[in-house]
Each structure stands twice: as structure tokens, then as C-alpha cells.
């Protein structure tokens, strides 16, 4: 089998040089590109239910479109030929060239196992619904950044694909793009291509949902991660710049197709803002289409590529750009007194940017400027994520410098600096009943978790029994009273129990509180039915230690109870 001459064109070699790819490595890898398909590639293509093609329209613009059918709709009658039986999606509507000599780029992916192979060629002939492609270049790709999915079988009578012209302001287009963890890109090199395939390419891109970003100026951007260093796509962008993206929504079968011009941004500061990016690619769309029935519907949720945790999103990158030394300016939008010694502070970004997401139960580092000093503290976020603000419910400590400044000196409109939410004291995603045990200001992560549980149930999640048990001195020190009572009345799965250790004259047993003794195993045994529970414990250290030790002793000596030991969680 002979080796392809001039495997890489001038654009690819320019990008390889800019990326410092050693010549010795390139010489070794050139042997990976063949003029014929090995048997395993032929078998691979013949067993696929879907592949993606790069085809040119009558003006020379590349388009990336899928073709799919029952396995066997692609056939390899010889090592240097591939036959595609059926018309690629929207090929007629977009007037894509499939006549003799037309250039074709193909990428095939088995989404069940992350196998991926590429083939570039030219059309020998098209007749009777069969397009025969002469192989010019055949090579494999690694499984990086591919999310596995179980494709449903292509129907015998698939729905007809329809399309409508759209733009990036279209809500459905934005939804598909911003949720995408996978897209496919077609590109081409400059020049006439001489009827061959050199420089027409179809490729796959994968990342965390949000890795394909929509910019305020109507452009798109995506990171270029470490890959095989062939730089087929980037080499084409360097050479010509015309590209097409096919962005599928595997849940609905819809897709966004666009064609436009791309450019590579090598700026080190911008690249560094996107985790694991080595370059940034910007795309200016010329034409955008929303298509229905464009891909087979997926039967299972994706399993992300294991390395995705080390990559970023554009939301992450934009948030990082808003920070100085890891902190960002937030304004106190409102203050609300929750009890005699606890006040809630509602914080919103002063820069107008998005809020960094958190998980209910996490804490927020803050930095308060006082004269020439920077006072660092961390406080629990006391409400579930809402995308608009953080709520910190802070106890005024007699000797607490930060809490005194917050309570006594800062007011609406004042600025504090905020870091990224942290912490792993969060609800599990199981189905067991939940016991939230809190004392004093330890109620703050519990109220956030309860808030999140309410939102989950409202969103259709299964109900979990929640036993919300809180201990405090009296009604003057109890926070979130109205909120808790209202929720307990609304949801029958929420069981609220309040213990006062020093009730005031106006506190009424059975009304403002349920018991006047300290929480103990005897008290809890009256509240909790037999069975397994997930326990969450937060409060003053003496409160947590006493309950934790009591539970350990009781469970170890009383085999009639099935309560597990309380896990030793920390809270902030």
C-alpha cells in the first residue's frame, strides 16, 4: 500500500509549525495516512448507522451534513472505495456537489465505544441513489472528547427533514448551541482543489456543555484542545477560512447548521482563560438553519469523555475574566433581618455579568475591604441556586470583626468581593429520607438544601421525606420562621420540628416550638420512624459533637433501631 504524497498541505504545515510540532513526529505520523482503507476501517464504516460528510455547495462553501440509515447503508466494495446508499441530509436543498470529481470529507464515529475513523476522497459517480467515493486519504483518530450515546435504530420510514432559516437570537437555536457537548465541522483549503479531496475535511469536536459559545457580537467561539496534531481543520482555516458547523440535539433529532468564516486566535491571555484550550477558534456565521429530523434520536443520556472534567466552558472563561485575584465585586442588593442576631445579605454582581453557579449547601468566600486591610471570611449560601443572586445569612458575633462590619457598617449598594462557591456539604442524589439537624446559625445550609429540594420537586423530581429538625434558644434567635412554616404547610413530605432551649415569655409550646428540651436520641426517636435515613448535621461544634456521639452510641447498643451513624459532615 503506497503512502500518500504531500499528506499535509501548506495551511496544515503552517499551523503545525506555529504549534511547535516536531518534524520528526510529523514524519512518523505521515505513515498513518493511507491511500486505501484497512479492513477494520471498511468493517467499521459498514456497521455505522450514521456518518458525517463535508461537501461543497455551488459557490464553494463547505457544509457539514449527516447521512444515516440501518447498518449496511454504507458499503466498501474495495479498499479504495466507499459507497453511500441514500442522500445526505439536506444535500438537495443546499445544492451540495456530488457529481463526478466533487470533493468529500467523511468522519465516522461509533458513539457506543468512541471509535472514530476519517476518510477524504472524491466522487467517482452518483447514480440510483448511490454515491461512490474514491479514497484519497484514510486515517484513524483517537477517542478523545467523544461522549458515548446509544443511538436508536434508524426508522424504516424516517421523517422528512425540514429546515428554516434562523439566527443566533432564535431561542431554539441558542438552546441547542449552548447545551451542545458535540458538534461536527466541515472545512476546506484554498484553491480549486483540482477535483481532488486535498483540503476538504469533516471533523468532530467535543467538550462540556457550554464549550461552544455565542458571543455578544453575533459570532461563535470554541476551544481547540490537544489532539492528534495533524491540524486538518485548523490548517484549512489558516488556508481558506470557510467552515460549516453541524450542531445536533440528540434528544429531539433537531440540529443547527451554519456556514461562515473562521479564524484562529493564538492570544495567550485569551487561551489561558479557557481551561485546557490550546487555541481559540472564532466563527462569523454567514447563514444559519434550524433543521428538524436531522439526526436519529438518541435512546440514552450521554456518558462524557473522562477527561472533560479538566476542560472549561465559556461561562467559566467569562466569569474568570471578571475576577481580580480570584475575587469579583458584588453589590449588597438588600439586607433582611432574620432574627435578633442573624441578617441575610442578598448579593448581586456589580459588573452586570452572570452569577457563578453553586450547589445548595456550599459556602462562599468573601473579601471585605476595611481601610487598607482585606478581611477574608467564608459563609454558607443560604438559598438554592437561582441564577440571580447569592444570599448569605450571617450571625453577628460579639467578637467577629467581619460579621460586625457586615451588620453595622455595610448597607444596600455597598460593595464586597466574592470568590467561587466551594464545599462538598451537599445533598446526595439518592432516594432515602433526609434528616436535616441544625443548631443556631447551622440552619443556613439546611434552608438552602430544603430550598433546592422544593425546586427539584416542583421540577418533577420524585419526592423524598424531609425531617427538618432545628434547635435554637427561642423565637428571638430563630431564623427563617415564616419561610419554614409556609413550606411545611404546603408540602406534606416536609416534617418540621423546632426545639427551644430557653423560650421567651411569649413563646408558646405547640405553636412557636415543639419541645423545650435539648435534642437527644430520646427526642429524635419520637420523631423518626424506623428505616434508613441520610443525615445532615450542622451547628456549633458542641451541638454537633453531642449529637454525633449520642447517635454512634445508641446505634451501636440498640439493635432494634435501624438508624445509621451520622456521617461526620462539616459546614460553614
TrEMBL record:
Q: Which domain of life is it from?
A: Bacteria
* InterPro entries referenced in this protein's UniProt entry, alphabetically: Cbr1-like_FAD-bd_dom, FAD-bd_FR_type, FNR_nucleotide-bd, OxRdtase_FAD/NAD-bd, Riboflavin_synthase-like_b-brl, Split_barrel_FMN-bd
For this protein, the Enzyme Commission number is 1.14.12.17
Q: What is the name listed in the Swiss-Prot or TrEMBL entry for this protein? A: Flavohemoprotein
Per UniProt, which keywords does this protein have? Oxidoreductase
Task: Write out the GO MF terms.
Answer: nitric oxide dioxygenase NAD(P)H activity
- Pfam family, any one: FAD_binding_6
User: Where would I find the FAD-binding FR-type domain in this sequence?
Assistant: 325-428
Amino acid at each position: 500500500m503506497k503512502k500518500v504524497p504531500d499528506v499535509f498541505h501548506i495551511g496544515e504545515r503552517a499551523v503545525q509549525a506555529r504549534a511547535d510540532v516536531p518534524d520528526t513526529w510529523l514524519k512518523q505520523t505521515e505513515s498513518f495516512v493511507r491511500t486505501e482503507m484497512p479492513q477494520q476501517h471498511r468493517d467499521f464504516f459498514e456497521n455505522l448507522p450514521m456518518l458525517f460528510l463535508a461537501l461543497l455547495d455551488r459557490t464553494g462553501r463547505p457544509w457539514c451534513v449527516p447521512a444515516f440509515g440501518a447498518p449496511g447503508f454504507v458499503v466498501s466494495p474495495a479498499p479504495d472505495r466507499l459507497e453511500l446508499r441514500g442522500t445526505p441530509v439536506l444535500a438537495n436543498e443546499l445544492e451540495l456537489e456530488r457529481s463526478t470529481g466533487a470533493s468529500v470529507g467523511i468522519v465516522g464515529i461509533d458513539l457506543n465505544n468512541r471509535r472514530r475513523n476519517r476518510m477524504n476522497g472524491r466522487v467517482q459517480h452518483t447514480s440510483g441513489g448511490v454515491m461512490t467515493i474514491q479514497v484519497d486519504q484514510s486515517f484513524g483518530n483517537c477517542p478523545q472528547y467523544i461522549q458515548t450515546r446509544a443511538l436508536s435504530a434508524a426508522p424504516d420510514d424516517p421523517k422528512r427533514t425540514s429546515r428554516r432559516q434562523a439566527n443566533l437570537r432564535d431561542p431554539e437555536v441558542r438552546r441547542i448551541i449552548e447545551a451542545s457537548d458535540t458538534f461536527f465541522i466541515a472545512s476546506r483549503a484554498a484553491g480549486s482543489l483540482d477535483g481532488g479531496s486535498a483540503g476538504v475535511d469533516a471533523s468532530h469536536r467535543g467538550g462540556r456543555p457550554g464549550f461552544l459559545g455565542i458571543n455578544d457580537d453575533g459570532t461563535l467561539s470554541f476551544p481547540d484542545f490537544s489532539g492528534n496534531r495533524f491540524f486538518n481543520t485548523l490548517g484549512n482555516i489558516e488556508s481558506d477560512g470557510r467552515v460549516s458547523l453541524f450542531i445536533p440535539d440528540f434528544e429531539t433529532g433537531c440540529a443547527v447548521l451554519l456556514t461562515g468564516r473562521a479564524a484562529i486566535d493564538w492570544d495567550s491571555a485569551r487561551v489561558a482563560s479557557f481551561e485546557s484550550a490550546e487555541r481559540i477558534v472564532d466563527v462569523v456565521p454567514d447563514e444559519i438553519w434550524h433543521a428538524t429530523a436531522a439526526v436519529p434520536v438518541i435512546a440514552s443520556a450521554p456518558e462524557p469523555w473522562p477527561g472533560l472534567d479538566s476542560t472549561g466552558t465559556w461561562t467559566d472563561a467569562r466569569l474568570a475574566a471578571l475576577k481580580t485575584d480570584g475575587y469579583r465585586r458584588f453589590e449588597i442588593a438588600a439586607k433582611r433581618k432574620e432574627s435578633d442576631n442573624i441578617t441575610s445579605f442578598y448579593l448581586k454582581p456589580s459588573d452586570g455579568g452572570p452569577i457563578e453557579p453553586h450547589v445548595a449547601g456550599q459556602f462562599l468566600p468573601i473579601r471585605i475591604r476595611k481601610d487598607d486591610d482585606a478581611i477574608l471570611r467564608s459563609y454558607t449560601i443560604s438559598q438554592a441556586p437561582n441564577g440571580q443572586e447569592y444570599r448569605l445569612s450571617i450571625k453577628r458575633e460579639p467578637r467577629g470583626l467581619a460579621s460586625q462590619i457586615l451588620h453595622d457598617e455595610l448597607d444596600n449598594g455597598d460593595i464586597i468581593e466574592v470568590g467561587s462557591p466551594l464545599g462538598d456539604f451537599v445533598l446526595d442524589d439518592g432516594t432515602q429520607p433526609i434528616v436535616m439537624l441544625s443548631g443556631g446559625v447551622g440552619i443556613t445550609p439546611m434552608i438552602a438544601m430544603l430550598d433546592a429540594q422544593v425546586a427539584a420537586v416542583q421540577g418533577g423530581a420524585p419526592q423524598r421525606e424531609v425531617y427538618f429538625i432545628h434547635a435554637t434558644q427561642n423565637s428571638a434567635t430563630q431564623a427563617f420562621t415564616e419561610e419554614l412554616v409556609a413550606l411545611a404547610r404546603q408540602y406534606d413530605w416536609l416534617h418540621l420540628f423546632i426545639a427551644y432551649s430557653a423560650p421567651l415569655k411569649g413563646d408558646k409550646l405547640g405553636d412557636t416550638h415543639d419541645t423545650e428540651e435539648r435534642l437527644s436520641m430520646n427526642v429524635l426517636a419520637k420523631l423518626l420512624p424506623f428505616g434508613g435515613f441520610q443525615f445532615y448535621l450542622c451547628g456549633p461544634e458542641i451541638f454537633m459533637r453531642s449529637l454525633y456521639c449520642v447517635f454512634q452510641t445508641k446505634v451501636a447498643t440498640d439493635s432494634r433501631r435501624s438508624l445509621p451513624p451520622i456521617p461526620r459532615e462539616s459546614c460553614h
